[in-house]
Description:
Blueprint: H1 2-50, H2 61-72, E1 80-85, E2 88-91, H3 103-111, E3 116-122, E4 125-137, E5 143-155, H4 157-207, H5 222-279, H6 285-315, E6 324-327, H7 328-338, E7 347-350, E8 356-359, H8 361-378, E9 383-391, E10 397-404, H9 438-448, E11 452-457, E12 463-470, H10 479-483
Parallel strand pairs: 7-9
Antiparallel strand pairs: 1-2, 1-5, 3-4, 4-5, 6-8, 9-10, 10-12, 11-12
Amino acid sequence: MRTRLLLAFLLVAAVSAGTTAALTYREARNAVLQTAQDTAVTSFRDQVQQTGFALPVRGGDDLESLLRDIARRGKPHPWVVFAEYGSVRASSGENPVSTVITPELRRAARADPHGSFERVVKDGVPYLTIAMPMVFKTGPYSLLSSGLVLYAVMPMTDEQVNVDALLTAARDGALPGLAVALIPGLIAARSVLRPVRELRQAAQSMGSGRLDTRIPVRGSDELADLAHTFNESAAQLEHSVRELRDAEARARRFASDVSHELRTPLAGMLAVTEVLDEDADHLDADTARAVRLVSAETGKLAVLVEDLMEISRFDARAAELNADEVDVAEAIRKTLANRHWTDTDRVRTDLPDGIRARLDPRRFDLVLANLVGNALRHGSAPVTVSLRTETRSPSAPVLITEVKDSGPGIRPAALPHIFDRFYKADAARTRSAGSGLGLAITLENVKLHDGTIRAGNLPGAGAVFTVEIPLHTEESGGRGGEAGR
């Protein structure tokens, strides 16, 4: 922007200086040429009128002597004088006929008894040519041509030198003017760009979370209005964000407090429902169905409360990573065995041995359990769990775990929201065995390992969830490695 402002300023200065120089040059040139021209025409007319010629004119030394006498008295420079009378041709110079006098000037001399003049450039040299016919005054307002026409040819080299000097002065004066204009241009660009630079820095500061950033307001121009508007908007944004953060904090505290308060009565309810489940076979059919429904819904409520407690710990940044070096394939097999997902018709595995990583076993177990359980509930068997490593750079090996199902896949509209809390990809499935927080908790657990998780669809059919966790070494550490030491 600084460059554009300087270029614009210099362009305006160049146009102004060029226009001024051109106008000055034109006026000065016209003044120089007009002065020389008026002086020469007036002087030649006076000389012609004061000189007597015997008619009819005959060529010879007498005529040439008269012409030389007129030429010597030429102003502002000496002339070469030519005379034309019928077939007689004479001059004050060496040649009786001039190559500078044009046919147009001769026609003008015959048409205008008061005389004519013309500026001519011949072989690069400027000349002033003047035609003055000799006339008789026959009355107060009438003139009679004698047939004799005198011509004066005056080189205008001195005037051309002066004009060239004017052009050089105008050009040489414009260039320093542009150099001098660069200084106010820099000052103007600095004064314009300083508020813009402050605005950019303030926007970057606000983008990094410092919402109390303000811009100093200087002056009363448009940039000052912009700074004032920015400060007002920043203050409103800070107030709105503070209210949102307070509301979010209250909501998190509410969810955490409610979840904590529900755990104790839920523990008693779960104990009672276990007893009722054991005796349900001895009850009548309606009562048994009611007992089993109460038991199932109590279990869902317990899962929801535990998930709320877990997500509250993430929100409060109280979740800790207790990392340890584990055999990843063995950890996955243990997760599947603990959930009784060992039937190969339902869950298949591709788990190469020998892959070790620093993980939090409990949180990695929750990640796998949530992904496989989600695939079995909302996808279709068989579900495939695969494990591999990739070395994308010598210092960044990555552990990759994939969970694929054979279902219809995830709707494209649902993919951007699949890890949102309480989001259900199928709007018609308002009740399910899950809490709606499973994938959100999975995402937080993966982030705690400095990893990433993404959801997608396979080319044929089925959904795929990919978890990528950096393989930290003992030297490089990372959040997982540090927490486990």
